[in-house]
């Protein structure tokens, strides 16, 4: 994404990046509203924040993969996926998947073909703990 501003593909990449950030922000706002409505100040395991972080990473990588790349795609991510691989992570994976699907459905830009299957968030974050690989997305 480092092409000159006059390049037509730069405009497409910029549009995809803006779309990805808008979707990620919408997901974070949903999580924030849920926290306020349930009067949760903080959790020991930071679950709401973690869910928002992972969900944002999934949306950004998904949009960039669909709109910008034509092959495998990797991106450095903030959250370490190792916790999602542990026993008992099914609930947080389901929550991430539900939030991503809800955000995509509300936006309406993508068909259900692109919606994540339950627990498929792990497919978006294999390999290195802080790198998202989308080659194995498996749609």
TrEMBL record:
Give the Gene Ontology MF terms in alphabetical order: 3'(2'),5'-bisphosphate nucleotidase activity; metal ion binding
User: Which PANTHER family does the UniProt record give?
Assistant: 3'(2'),5'-BISPHOSPHATE NUCLEOTIDASE, PHOSPHATASE
* Annotated signal peptide: none
Q: Which GO terms describe its biological process?
A: sulfate assimilation
Cofactor(s) required for function per UniProt:
Mg(2+)
Its recorded name reads Uncharacterized protein
Against Gene3D superfamilies, the record matches this protein to: Fructose-1,6-Bisphosphatase, subunit A, domain 1
SUPFAM superfamilies of this UniProt entry?
Carbohydrate phosphatase (SSF56655)
Give the superkingdom in one word: Eukaryota
Q: Does the keyword Lipid metabolism apply?
A: no
InterPro entries recorded: Inositol_monoP_superfamily
Query: Which UniProt keywords are listed?
Result: Hydrolase, Magnesium, Metal-binding
Q: Which organism is it from?
A: Aegilops tauschii subsp. strangulata (Goatgrass)
- Stated family: Belongs to the inositol monophosphatase superfamily.
């Amino acid at each position: 994404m480092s092409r000159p501003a006059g390049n037509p593909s730069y405009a497409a990449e910029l549009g995809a990046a803006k779309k990805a950030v808008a979707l990620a922000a919408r997901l974070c706002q949903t999580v924030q509203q849920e926290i306020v409505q349930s009067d949760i100040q903080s959790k020991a395991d930071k679950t709401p924040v973690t869910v928002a972080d992972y969900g944002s990473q999934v949306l950004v990588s998904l949009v960039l993969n669909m709109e910008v790349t034509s092959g495998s795609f990797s991106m450095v991510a903030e959250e370490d996926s190792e916790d999602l691989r542990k026993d008992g992570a099914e609930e947080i994976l389901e929550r991430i998947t539900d939030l991503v699907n809800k955000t995509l459905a509300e936006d309406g830009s993508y068909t259900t073909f692109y919606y994540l299957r339950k627990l498929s968030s792990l497919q978006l974050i294999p390999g290195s703990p802080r790198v998202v690989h989308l080659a194995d997305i498996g749609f």
